[in-house]
Amino acid sequence: MTSPQTPTGTRFKSGFACFIGRPNVGKSTLMNALVGMKVAITSNKPQTTRRAIRGIVHRPDAQLVIVDTPGLHKPRTLLGERLDSLVRSTLSEVDVIGFCIPANEPVGPGDRFIAAELAQVKRTPVVAIVTKTDLADRSQVAEQLLKVSRLGEWADVVPCSAESGYQLDVVSDLLAARLPEGPPLYPEGELTDEPEQILVAELIREAALEGVREELPHSIAVVVEEIRPREDRDDLIDVQAWLYVERPSQKGIVIGPKGARLKEVGTRARKQIEALLGTRVYLDLRIKVAKDWQRDPKQLRRLGFYD
């Protein structure tokens, strides 16, 4: 199929971009801002993203499909190894890469490690994106741009802020410009191709990550067993989900005194799920211990993390 013409007479473009960076540099927040809807969960905990989540940006001249990847890091568990493998396979399949480095943090060994990895990716252009400019002053941003430009051979270097909206249009323009000509890959109005069950599970995990201790976030996994309309009620959907942790002591942390914390997680998650599904939701949230699941291939598969 040939590429349709845009209103300006140029050929329509479509293709894939991915965001890469160390954990917690704002990749998911940036993707959500560009898409215009929350399609990836965000948290100040490292390694929040565990899947390659696709968000779709519809433009008059292009359709940009952004793949948000887990942060690239030195893996310490089998789960970590699978996440790193997922990032590397994504890099080889996209048309343009956005390398995210925050404006408000020093360029460190993790950034240099990723820059060295990207130097091996010969055929795909890389746009270096300095994120979180709302958290830095002008001189800090200028200094960071200089340091980032020296890290490698980039197709472009651009500062932006997903929070304030600063230069989001420029980021979108730079990524879209490097896509191949082609027709749209998704129907107009579709913002993600993630199944509803995965999106709901992620919203529950995001709520569970809020305010937990440092060692716990990696140990939390969520599986949604069922999403179905309540019989005789067209205004209510029942959602049944299991929240998995690795040890009994972690179960106690998530439940909290007299179940207060789990109730809080359920309330927070339910509001987000109702916004996603556009209807009232009854959330049945239960918790289970799956001993050392991050290191167990069988349990990883059961929780949706495949080889």
Descriptive notes:
Strand 2 and strand 3 form a beta hairpin. The strands form 2 sheets. The chain has a 6-stranded mixed sheet with strand order 2-3-1-4-5-6, with helices on both faces. A 3-stranded mixed sheet has the order 7-8-9. 36% of the residues are buried. It has 9 helices and 9 strands. With 307 residues, it is an alpha/beta fold.
Compact summary:
The chain contains nine helices and nine strands. The chain has 307 residues and is α/β, with parallel strands linked by helices. Strands 2-3-1-4-5-6 form a six-stranded mixed β-sheet, with helices on both faces.
Question: What integer value in Å does the Rg equal?
Answer: 20 Å
State the low-pLDDT regions, or none.
44-50
Kindly name the structural category. alpha/beta
> Which range does the strand content fall in?
15-25%
Secondary-structure element string:
EHEEHEHEHEHHEEHHEH
Residue-averaged pLDDT: 82
The total count of strands amounts to 9
Q: Total helix count?
A: 9
As a percent range, the share of helical residues equals 25-40%
Largest sheet: 6 strands, mixed
Name the overall outline: globular
Q: What's the N-to-C terminus distance?
A: 34 Å
User: Spatial order of the strands in the main sheet?
Assistant: 2-3-1-4-5-6
